[in-house]
Amino acid sequence: MGKEVERKFLVSSTVWRELAESNIRILQFYLATAPGRTVRIRISDGASAKLTLKFGSGVRERDEFEYPIPLADAREMLDFAIGRVIEKTRHHVRHRGYLYEVDVFGGALAGLVVAELETPEDVPDEMLPDWLGREVTGEQKFYNASLALGGIPEIAA
Question: Is 100 among the catalytic positions?
Answer without folding.
Answer: no
